[in-house]
Design a protein that fits this description.
mainly beta; globular; six-stranded antiparallel beta sheet; about 170 residues; five-stranded antiparallel beta sheet
Length: about 170
C-alpha cells in the first residue's frame, strides 16, 4: 500500500526506509481490584508484562492504562520499571519525587480517575525483559486499583470496577 501525503510525496518518494515495523505484541490485563498500603514507598501491584526482543537494536513501546486508581490520602503516583530499573519518570529537580504519572484524591469514596503512559525503551538485549508498574501514595496512603476507596456495592457506574491493560510492542 502506498501512502500519499498532502505535499504530493508518497511513502516511496518521502525517503521512508526499512524500519518502524512491529515485530511482536504482548499484552497483559489486570481486572482484579486491589488495594496497596504504600507507607510513602513504591510498591509493586502485580501488573507487568515480559517480552523477548528478537534483536538488541530493536525498541520496545510500552503502553499501559489503569482504568480506576486513586489514593485515600491526597494524591498518588506511578512509575514504569524495566526489571529493577526505573525508566518511566521525570527529571530530577531538588528533593522532588521522580514519577511517571500522578493521580488525585477523589472527592468521595467512589469517584476515581484513570492514568496512562506511553514509553519507548531501548533495552539493548535479546533476553526476556519484564516491564512493571509501581505505585506510591501520599504519606501513608493506600492506593486502590480497579475500584474505588469505598467500593460501594451499587449498580450505578460510579461504583463500577474497571480493567487495566499493558501492551508491549517490539519495534524494528
Amino acid at each position: 500500500m502506498t501512502i500519499h501525503f498532502g505535499d504530493g510525496t508518497s511513502q516511496t518518494s518521502a525517503g521512508v526506509t526499512e524500519g518502524g515495523k512491529i515485530i511482536q505484541v504482548k499484552q497483559n490485563t489486570k481486572t482484579a481490584a486491589g488495594s496497596y498500603s504504600t507507607g510513602g514507598s513504591w510498591v509493586n501491584i502485580g501488573f507487568s508484562e515480559s517480552i523477548t526482543p528478537s534483536s538488541s537494536s530493536n525498541k520496545i513501546l510500552i503502553l499501559w492504562y489503569i482504568g480506576k486508581i486513586s489514593c485515600n490520602d491526597w494524591s498518588g503516583a506511578t512509575r514504569l520499571l524495566r526489571g529493577g530499573t526505573v525508566i518511566g519518570m521525570g527529571d530530577a529537580s531538588g528533593s522532588r519525587s521522580r514519577i511517571g504519572t500522578s493521580f488525585p484524591r477523589s472527592h468521595d469514596n467512589n469517584h476515581w480517575g484513570g492514568t496512562a503512559m506511553m514509553w519507548l525503551d531501548s533495552p539493548s538485549t535479546t533476553s526476556s525483559t519484564e516491564y512493571k508498574i509501581q505505585v506510591n501514595g501520599h504519606s501513608s496512603g493506600t492506593v486502590y486499583i480497579n475500584r474505588g476507596h469505598g467500593d460501594g456495592n451499587s449498580a450505578d457506574v460510579y461504583a463500577g470496577r474497571s480493567a487495566s491493560s499493558m501492551i508491549c510492542m517490539e519495534i524494528s
